[in-house]
Design brief:
alpha+beta; 4-stranded mixed sheet; 35% helix; single chain; 4 strands; 6 helices; 14% strand; Glutaredoxin; 165 residues; globular
Length: 165
Amino acid sequence: MKFPRFLVPVAALALACGTARPVPRHVYPDPAQARADLAAALKRAAASHKRILLDFGGNWCGDCLVLDYYMHSPQNRPILESNFELVDINVGRYDANLDLAQRYEIPLEKGVPALAVLTETGKLLYSQKNGQFERMGQMDPGSVTKFLLQWKPIRPGCSAVMVTC
């Protein structure tokens, strides 16, 4: 049986554990947590001079889970953790946190996952307008690396191309 590329890691784990079905993973917390999670991320970002990465999606969304898998891959995890405060915002079945999506200019009608990048003070720098990541399962993991590098903060004494700075 041929699995879609994004299910291969999940399927391999399930087979190794002796189950025939993939184990569901919950990336997005209860929708009611979004505001508290965002407030905490803003506080941490202000202290650490990191940017805030908002990831709008749902646990039912395969492409959202693939994006999370790619963001936490060995290649991307160090970039993510040293430059961003990640906030996973659960949109339910497009019936939750719609006001946050609107506030950060996320057109949910284009699909999820959808990303926004904020400064350490909460100013919107980028919002996904065209559903760029909605087909994550068909995209190259390097597209996430490119995105993270493009939007990481530039610190004094660092160049834009330095990954570890």
